[in-house]
Amino acid sequence: MSRPRADSQDSLEPDDEVMPYSDDETDDELGQEDEEVPPAIPSVEPAGWKVKANDRDFCKRPEFQKKFFLCFKKCKYSGNAIKTYKYNALTFLPLNLFEQFKRAANLYFLTLLILQVIPQISTLPWYTTLVPLVLVLGITAIKDLVDDLARHRMDKEINNRKCEVILNGRFQEAKWMDIQVGDVVRLKKNDFIPADILLLSSSDPNSLCYVETAELDGETNLKFKMGLKVTHEKLQQENHLAAFDAMIMCEEPNNRLDKFTGTMHWDRDAFPLDLDNMLLRGCKVRNTEECRGLVIFAGADTKIMRNGGKTRFKRTKIDYLMNYMVYTIFVLLVLICAGLAIGHTFWYEEVGSKAWYLYDGKNQTASYRGFLSFWGYIIVLNTMVPISLYVSVEVIRLGQSKFINWDLQMYYADKDTPAKARTTTLNEQLGQIEYIFSDKTGTLTQNIMAFKKCTISGRTFGNPTSRDGVTLDREKPVDFSWNRYMDRKFQFFDSHLVSCIRSKKDPEILEFFKLLSLCHTVMVEQKDGERLSENELVYQAASPDEGALVTAARCFGFVFLSRTQDTITISEMGMENTYKMLALLDFNSDRKRMSIILRFPDGRIRLYCKGADTVIYQRLSPSSKYKETTQDSLDIFANETLRTLCLCYKDISESEYDVWYRKHKEASVVMTNRDEALDHVYELIETNLMLIGATAIEDKLQDGVPETIAKLAKADIKIWVLTGDKKETAENIGYSCELLTDEMNIHYGEDVNEKLSVRQANRRNQPGRGRNKTVKEPFFPEPSKNALIITGGWLNEILYEKKKKRRRLRLRRLGKRPPPANPQDSQPIDDWEKEMRQCDFVDMACECSAVVCCRVTPKQKANVVSLVKRYKKAVTLSIGDGANDVNMIKTADIGVGISGQEGMQAVMSSDYAFAQFRYLQRLLLVHGRWSYIRMCKFLRYFFYKNFAFTLVHFWYSFFSGYSAQIAYEDWFITLYNVLYSSLPVLLVGLLDQDVNDKLSLRFPKLYLPGQQGALFNYKNFFFSLFHGIFTSLIIFFIPYGAFLQTMGQDGEAPSDYQSFAVVTASSLIITVNLQISLDTSYWTFVNCFAVLGSIAIYFGIMFDIQSAGIHVLFPTAFKFTGVAANALRQPYLWLTIILTVGISLLPVICIQFLSKTIWPSVGDKVQRNKKKYEVEEERKRKPPAFQRGGRSRRSAYAFSHSRGYADLIASGRSIRQKPRPRAEFRDSIREEPNTENL
After folding, report:
1. Is the CB of residue 755 less than 8 Å from the CB of residue 779?
2. Residue ranges of the chain whose pLDDT lies below 50
């Protein structure tokens, strides 16, 4: 779908096809020079980290000492022993208590405990606070102790592992903890790597070493590492390794797992080192019998240990709200205690000091007694701040996380991948999501690539065609049986292309596939079958795109067979040819292309290049052919959502290559900015290219994506797609997954920029409406649906992040350029105007039903997420599958990783992980909504039961002279929150559900209360407060009235304080447990047992601790001797309890009945018809397996491609290892969706 663009009025209007140059473009660049000069090759500077091989004393020199405490110094090189534990036998108790008392709630209760020890203040025994506090501290301490013991065991096991080290001229066995920087070590197959080691040589003839990096990045596929050619050839024998005396100069220890820069000085020569030469600690040697290496970083300096720091702690909105409410409770507590203290002062002056029978022998003033009363009430009413709240919340969250892990409907059987909650602190936030930011490739699509079409010399191939070039009505797979190396899974439908190749009449077609077989960084392994015809080549590629292209070339007769350090061998239509590789210019996210320079068997030098059309077309020779026809084909491919790459070549003279090679060698050994220097050198040779054609690769949508997006949209969740793809591709994917519809008005970057410029101009022209007050007017007043499609270039333009515009701003700030006089100038006057522009953009985007940002870098993805968080205060979720999504995942409130084809980087950085995008609807609409409802219900009830319990003391104070006298028995206060009322509400927080999972998915509108925060806010908090006040009033005054001037059946008057305490406590326990029963929506045997069991436990314990036997044993601790047995044998006291409970619950029952009858919510309506809907769900037949229409869902070339194996290849030789067994890909991944997810 296309639309005409408005003519640009700004000469600096961005190109929709170009991505911003760097992910690191920030406002910090304002301080850089404004002239764009090519980067000069920096000179070699000495590095800060030096390692001398086989010389332990070198690291102990004075220049390598550093201060660590006062004047004491130690060596800056760490030993290899690691220490991840936090405590030892002596420090556990003090350190753990110190950490726990840094939490405000624990410190508060410790202060109360200290106050309770003071007899002049406290009327409450110290154990009433000590028991709950010790329980909370004990549970946390036990958890910390178990975790730390596990760390102790792990540290001991790791530090005592054995490794062979050269000592005294020969290899000797040593423990890991004894290894030092500069040691030469020998590792065997399946050994863990003990430190960050420079690979010197291996048993492989090409110094190749396979490593498994699962502990580093979660990926189980093998990586290739290779030693330098010079060390591999000279350091095979033990005596040669013992005499090795090279000096390594490299970067200081850091946490960059993707980068290492160093230089080895040996035999009067310098050799460049990079990450491909390093074996990192935490990896495991695989498929390599033996390798030798030099320790560069040890222990705490290794990269895996440097990455052991804490990640950014995410907290939910409910967390913040809960903390503010605890602060509110504390303020209320202080105010109530102050009021009661004032009351005691006046009471003592008017009554207490004049009543002779109240004289206590203390000559204290009324004011001083009021002061003591204040602290006494702080102690008595301390249960208003719930001590067990935080522990209970953590238990509930842990349980909810386990339910997510155990959900079989989020289990992906094809890859044996269950859903995983990688954090336990964010579950209820899943029920409040307003915006989802999704990557496209691998997230919405499968990221399993298939070569579908191509354009060569202006001709397009790939549609169903006969050998003679006649278009066919039906797809008929091409017969590749003539090629013994064919991939049986590969399908192509254009027989004409195959006939052109086999006839060898068109040299450009042959050159096209020769380029595909030579220009790549794929590693090859050969699996031998029983017969030669069964030989199977196994390709391992840095990206699915590259693997698909090399596989296509293989099937068309150009088979990549093997490679060495400086050669590549391919089979060209059955004839093997070997090409000398002179240089490999690898892909990165800035270059967006890769090139290879080869010397042909006839002596010619040729450069092959493939990359994104945006960068290739800028580097084409003016005499290059087929530009227009290829561009037309690229547009067609993009509209079909295919991923595209352009292919080109250049012939290079011997003299031109010699000049360039010298520059390349200089750049490859610099210590600072090596990558930038190499990129600059690459630019010098990648010019005046000749275009051959372009490839088109298909990437299908995942199953269930349109249905998931539609369902989430009904839940009022807005989905933004942030991708590196071309605009046309992203737009068509939007239509394919039904994020965009034909009814929507599509607005592009130029439209957005124009609307924002008009808004900005109006703001400048009306200063009264500008800074003092902000009037929010809609950008799209028409009621029709709108969608926004914006590129990375326009995004920088709109948000004032474009380099040229920032440069203007910097010059203006320096006074070299006056501010614009024309109000139509779109440049910001100051930071406030820039902020308003960003706010306007967010407002406009949020008015749209869908937003697609294409051609954006990983940093821009994170910036878009942070803008919505900042200006909309909305709860955001980011979902992606690749390393380029990590920034976005970490920035959002919730990060979800998809374990797909691009490794595990996204999953390792995420909060939740699963295998398919469609599981997102279940995560949010079922688990997220349930978690939110449960947590809100738990918190509302928790606050209510504590208010109802505590405020009885408040009413009692009016009848006790405000003397801080307690209304209950001591032990009841101690056990109330621990045993009598904790289990039912904990089970509600774990198990409650208003409707089942099927109805939650069927009615997405049920999700809306979570977005609105309707179930837990200050309104609900104060409702719980007033509900607690009402309940405490009833629980106190009805028994008070019943005890007033009352006579029992036996003629006695049981109107004593202790009997009154038993009746109020019994009424309270029954009331709060029946109250949670009224709030329970989902009843199980466990819930029923918890409610009845809590009441039974109360009466059982009460009769025990008020028995004569325990009083004899502990007369000072148990003073209510026989009270329960005496009081509860009076029938009218049981009637009093029943009356109290009934009056307490009757208004709640009436309010619930009226609200659900007269003002029912969506949830109430669904609950009312729940049985009907459940029967419908049972009767509903399963729909057929989801099948897509005839049109494929594809996507274009995205710049999420990871760095390839170029550096490794350039420094190594052919791969001769046997491949490890691996599962075959399925021909197609189709899964019949569960009816509950539809």
Report:
1. yes
2. 1-12, 21-47, 529-534, 803-811, 813-814, 816-825, 1184-1202, 1210-1238
Tell whether residue 855 is among the known ligand binding residues. Answer: yes
Q: Are 552 and 490 in contact (CB under 8 A)?
A: yes
CA-wise closest residue to 613 among 37, 15, 1204: 15
What's residue 777's pLDDT? 80
Distance CA 828, CA 835 (A): 9
Burial class of 1234 by CB neighbour count within 10 A (0 to 12, 13 to 18, 19+):
middle
pLDDT value, residue 675: 78
Beta-carbon contacts of residue 1020 (< 8 Å; ≥ 6 apart): 936, 940
148 is in an annotated binding site: no
Q: In what order do the strands lie in the sheet with 208-212?
A: 222-226, 208-212, 284-286
pTM of the model: 0.77
CA neighbor of 1067 nearest in space, from 1137, 980, 984 = 1137
Which spans in 617-704 are helix H? 627-639, 654-667, 674-685
Give the CA dihedral 708, 712, 714, 716, nearest 10 degrees.
-160
Residue carrying the six token digits 């505590």: 950
Closest CA to 211 of 1195, 962, 993, 1220: 1220
- Does 440 count as an annotated binding residue? yes
Taking residue 350's Cβ as centre, other Cβ atoms within 10 Å add up to: 10
The total of other beta-carbon atoms located within 10 Å of residue 618's CB is 11
State the amino acid at position 915 in one-letter form: A
Residue 724 in marked binding region: yes
Alpha carbon distances (Å) from 1027 to 179, 392, 1054: 67, 22, 30
DSSP category for residue 594: E
Tell me if 86 is assigned to a ligand binding site: no
Give CA–CA dist 421/423, Å, rounded: 5
Q: Name the strand (E) or helix (H) holding 846.
A: helix 831-847
Give the C-alpha separation, 785 to 806, whole Å.
34
| 870 Cα distance to chain centroid | 19
Q: Give the catalytic positions in this structure.
A: 439
pLDDT for 1202: 47
Structural contact between residues 1038 and 1136, judged by C-beta atoms closer than 8 angstroms: yes
Spatial contact of 475 and 464, defined as CB atoms under 8 Å apart:
yes
1203 closest CA partner among 678, 475, 510, 785: 678
Q: Do residues 387 and 109 make contact, with C-beta atoms less than 8 angstroms apart? A: yes
884 in a labelled binding site: yes
CA 589 to chain centre: 22
pLDDT of residue 647: 93
- Per-residue model confidence (pLDDT) at position 828: 59
**183: which 2 tokens?**
């040691």
- Cβ neighbours of residue 901 under 8 Å, at least 6 residues apart? 442, 446, 447, 448, 544, 881
* Spatial CA neighbour of 430 closest among 1081, 1000, 906, 882: 1000
pLDDT tens, 500-559? 888 888 888 899 999 999 998 887 776 654 444 445 778 877 677 888 899 999 998 899
Nearby residues of 1141 by Cβ (< 8 Å), 6 or more positions away: 1067, 1070, 1071, 1074
User: 């949010």: which residue's tokens?
Assistant: 924
SS (H, E, C) 712-731: HHHCCCEEEEECCCCHHHHH
Residue 374 annotated as binding? no
- 474 belongs to an annotated ligand binding site: no
852 forms bridges with which residues in the sheet?
721, 789
In whole angstroms, give the CA distance from residue 282 to residue 220. 13
**Structural contact between residues 982 and 365, judged by C-beta atoms closer than 8 angstroms:** no
> Rounded to an integer, what distance in angstroms lies between the CA atom of residue 773 and that of residue 558?
68
